Amino acid sequence: MAEAADIPRTGPSAARRWLGRGAALLAGTALLGGLLNPATAEAAGAPQAPAADAKARTAQPVSVSLDSFAPAAPVKGDRLTISGTVTNQSKRTITDAHVGLRVGPVLNGRSAIDHAARRDGFSPGADGLEIDEEYAQEIDSLAAGRSLPFRLSVPVDDLDLDSEGIYQLGVSLSGQTAAQPYEQVQGIERTFLPWQPKAAGGQTSLTMLWPLISTPHLTAETDSDEEQTPIFEDDSLAEEIAPGGRLERMVALGRELDITWVVDPDLLASVDAMRGGYRVRNEDGTTRAGSEQSEKLATDWLASVESAVAGKKIVALPYGDPDIASIAHRGKNVSGSLGRLKDATDVAASTVETILHVKPSTDFAWPVEGAVTPSVIDVATSAGARNVIARSDSMREAGSLTYTPSAARPIGGGTTAVVSDDRLSTLFQGDMTKAGNATLAVQRFVAQTLMTTLQDEGNERSLVVAPQRMPTASQARTMAEALRALDDERWSTPQNLTAAAKTEPDARATTRVPGNGSYPSALRKQELPKAAFEEIKETQDRLDRFKVILTNQDRVVPPFGRAVDREMSTSWRGLAEEAQQFRSVVSTYLNQLIGSVQLIEKSEAKLSGHSATIPVTVQNNLLQGVDKLVLRLESSKPTRLKIGEGRYQDQPVKVSGGHSQSVKFTTTANANGPVPVRAQLYTEDGRAYGAPIRFDVNVTEFTPTVMLVLAGGVLLLVLAGFRMYTQRKRQARELEAEQGGTPGDPGAGPAGEGQDGDGGPGQPGDHGPDTAPESPAPSGPGETVDR
To answer: ∠ CA(151), CA(426), CA(419), 5° rounding?
Structure first.
């Protein structure tokens, strides 16, 4: 009936409008029945949709998008302007159409706002009547599939708003088709008009978290130069901080707002690493130099952050934004996990202070989506947090509160749960690139904050908004628009997070942390597995063993320590394959560094004496020296081959960067043949370092028996030579005796000296020639002849 009376589109009188609204309120009573008493629904934070609402859901031939709504929270004397687009989604042309504005009933409670926002059909009673036709926009024809823009402008005073509150406001397109030749509503979009004609009895303190968080961009790998030029896995960080990029927009928008900055120190350190020159990994594994333009972007962005946070509250998360819930549910029983979280917390403050020159708060923990359990609280506080940012859909109110309580909740042990509002915190998660979505989000934000203040005027409370960790540029813009729409002098006032945590808690608000079994299954499925924490532990253990031999640990330990922090990052949720790849890259690079200090393979060594030295070479391909290593050479058969004084010998090793050193071991052989030996490096605490090498020592020494045999053979040769000599001398004497030995005889010299065959001087005992050279006389008996 109300719709039939509106067909001529004659403007109703003021009394008629009042009557129409009264009828609308009565008609909507059934729809809002469960919402008029918001006690349970408000406390639970979950609206109940009436069964009658199902009948109101009808397919809409026309889609209505509200692309702008200004002002978001008008006052008396303002002019409300709404613009947008209507799109005919049906297959029929709509004629004799117009776009009109409908003022619905004032809403009672925050759940009523939720309910109205979810309705997708037209309900005559709940959606109210159109205002005067002079404010409508005529559309002669809207063909199938066609879109047309519209713009409505109306003085707020002509809306005849009653008392303060939140009014449902609808923009509808009415018209007719050939199949239905009478006017009816073809499509409608609803939003909300907050109305506060006079100052509120109290104000709500509003805390908005503004997160500067990104995904991990660095592993531990650096270029092989003295400067240790960092290597980025890709160049996406440069895109984020470039003009128009996500992080650039977050800073540019945030500087004008009264907010609390929540920062991951790893993001700051990564951008800082770009300033001095960096390299980017290509898909084929090679690297390329980062551009000078990106280096300048990094410098400019950090300068803008430093300027924006000056005088504002800044909260530093643990380095790398570790996933507290994953550690609590999967990692805390893996040795070292809690220690890594504590270390990430300790390094956070110094990182932020060094780069931004401000001292941050580090006593806040922020579990994913504010979902808390006793184990999550325990892990957070073990790392030094005294405040845990929870969310109201996790810590639900169990009582009969008819209002939203303050955020601070003491939960025991000196720990405070700062409970963010789930409605406001999740409001900007949609696709805010669409103007229609952004407009609706802003109006719901403004409406919900005013409704919170009106719930219990005079009872001033604190409200915390903890949005998604990494808002897109469009989401950040929408968040900023929503904050700017609030008037500090009306129903809300800004407050920083530390002040919100110290607010006097509501005695009736819940302080019970839900049990471990209440953790949302969808979030649990995204957690890092226990195997991930075991891999992290193994990497940390190898790093601990490696660092003790380094002469300059600062070149290795901090980069790997921070890379291990990134392995526990919250950003890996839902990205199991990418997280595994990241851990593998870190582990592989550590293995490469460890393998840069190694033993050089050795072939068979030959030992040709009773004792000798065997060299073993240690190679160091690192850019720094190594020390505190021990090289052990061990014999597998010490009874045949002793090394040093027994089975093995240890010798200290110290090698400069890029050099090799040969270590010599004393050996003693007791038998011939090959003897297997093993060389192994150890750290000073007795842990094996690197892979051993094995080779044979082939013993070929002379034993005492062989020496006796050889000595006997030499003696026999000497005796045989002496016997031959004596026999020759005897024969010579006998021959001389037979020849008489007189002067002038052959063989006698002028003065009794012997002559050789050439007539020259001879030696005593030499024989003369048997005959003169070339003598024509016949040879005598027994003479020899030269031929």
So the answer is: 135
Instruction: Specify burial of residue 92 (Cβ count, 10 A radius: 0-12, 13-18, 19+).
Output: middle
Q: What is the pLDDT of residues 318-347, one digit of tens each?
A: 999 999 999 999 999 999 999 999 999 999
For residue 758, pLDDT over 80 is answered with no
Q: Which helix (H) or strand (E) holds 735?
A: helix 704-739
Total length of the chain: 787
pLDDT of residue 712: 62
Decide: 333 and 356 in contact? Cβ < 8 Å. no
- Distance, in Å, from the CA atom of 652 to the CA atom of 642, rounded to the nearest integer, reads 19
Interval 223-235: pLDDT, tens: 878 788 999 999 9
Residue 530: both structure tokens together: 């226990």
Regarding beta strands 688-699 and 605-607, do their DSSP bridges make them parallel or antiparallel, or are they unpaired?
parallel
Q: Which of 196, 193, 191, 194 is nearest to 164 (CA)?
A: 196
- The one-letter amino acid code at 782 reads G
In what helix (H) or strand (E) does residue 579 lie, and over which residues does it extend?
helix 576-594
Question: How far apart are alpha carbons 440 and 236 in whole angstroms?
Answer: 31
Cα dihedral angle (177, 179, 181, 182), rounded to 10 degrees?
A: -80
The owner of tokens 């040709």 is: 608
Task: Tell me how far apart the alpha carbons of residues 20 and 22 are, in angstroms, rounded to a whole number.
Answer: 5
- Burial bucket for residue 271 (CB in 10 Å: 0-12, 13-18, 19+): buried
Distance separating alpha carbons of residues 760 and 740, to the nearest angstrom? 22
Supply the DSSP string of 512-557, one letter for each residue.
PPPPGGGS-HHHHHTSPPHHHHHHHHHHHHHHHHHHTTBS-GGGTH
The pLDDT tens digits of the residues spanning 99-141 come to: 999 999 899 999 999 999 998 889 888 898 999 999 999 999 9
Element containing residue 497 per DSSP (H, E): helix 497-501
Q: How far is CA 53 from CA 30, 109, 118, 119, 126, in A?
A: 9, 18, 10, 8, 10
CA distance 480 to 464: 15
Q: Tell me the two tokens of residue 179.
A: 């199949």
Spatial neighbors of 734 by CB under 8 A, at least 6 apart, are: none
Cβ-Cβ contacts under 8 Å for 659 (sequence gap 6 or more): 620
Extended strands (E) in 89-228? 94-107, 129-130, 137-142, 147-155, 165-176, 184-195, 204-212, 218-222
C-alpha span between 257 and 254 (Å, rounded):
5
- Looking at the chain, the whole-number percentage of residues with pLDDT higher than 70 is 83
Give the C-alpha separation, 288 to 300, whole Å.
22
Tell me the H-state helices in 214-291: 236-241, 246-254, 265-275
